[in-house]
Specification:
This protein has about 190 residues and is mainly alpha-helical. The chain is about 65% helix and about 10% strand. It has six helices and five strands; from the N terminus they run αααααβββββα. It has helices at about 10-20, 25-55, 60-70, 70-85, 90-115, 150-185; strands at about 115-120, 125-130, 135, 140-145, 145-150. The strands form two sheets. A three-stranded antiparallel sheet has the order 1-2-5. A two-stranded antiparallel ribbon has the order 3-4. A hairpin with a 4-residue loop joins β3 and β4. The longest helix has about 35 residues, at about 150-185. The N and C termini lie far apart (about 80 Å).
Length: about 190
């Protein structure tokens, strides 16, 4: 007889019965995930304004260009390439590069929580995440890394959310500087 490789089916009735006891922690974790996702999305969307300024166009055209590119990487590549030909001030160009680098670092964390399976225990507590990435070693393929949802991980999420807030403010501070620079080089 062939033994199944599937994990055992959860006892959904037992989970539902015990879930209220772990609701506070689960709500905290889900709120942190929500903050990661919304903060990241807001930051990515601000790059539409960077694109608008670099393309010397209106917001709708910049948004259309932005949305036509189907990955964040493609969008940021376009911005970086445009910056290379449009920004003459090396310090301003470095500022944009640093913002993009910092944004990319937070993207790794956002992706980690957006593209994983959440493992819960019998009490409904989220105990681990399992990455949906395939990890290839010299001798095998493994289904993504499993990480505990411990206090250190939650603190890391909070730290990333704070960094996303700083990035947001830095993009807003950068936009008028970029706009001013491109106006001055057009004259």
């Amino acid at each position: 007889m062939v033994q199944s490789q599937l994990p055992p089916k959860p006892d959904f009735e037992a989970l539902a019965a015990s879930a209220p006891a772990t609701a506070d922690r689960r709500t905290t974790i889900l709120a942190l995930i929500g903050n990661l996702v919304s903060s990241w999305s807001n930051n990515e969307s601000l790059f539409i304004y960077v694109l608008m300024i670099l393309l010397k166009t209106d917001q709708a055209s910049a948004a259309l260009t932005f949305a036509t590119l189907n990955t964040t990487r493609a969008r940021l590549d376009l911005i970086q390439r445009l910056a290379k030909i449009m920004i003459k001030d090396k310090a301003l160009d470095r500022s944009l590069s640093k913002i993009i680098d910092r944004f990319n670092e937070t993207t790794h964390v956002r992706n980690e929580f957006n593209h994983c399976m959440y493992i819960v225990d019998a009490g409904g507590q989220i105990t681990h995440t399992q990455s949906m990435r395939i990890v290839q070693t010299k001798s095998s393929l493994k289904f993504g890394e499993m990480k505990p949802m411990d206090e250190a991980r939650l603190k890391g999420m909070v730290k990333t959310i704070k960094e996303m807030t700083r990035i947001n403010r830095d993009i807003w501070d950068f936009l008028p500087r970029l706009e001013s620079h491109l106006r001055s080089t057009a004259d």
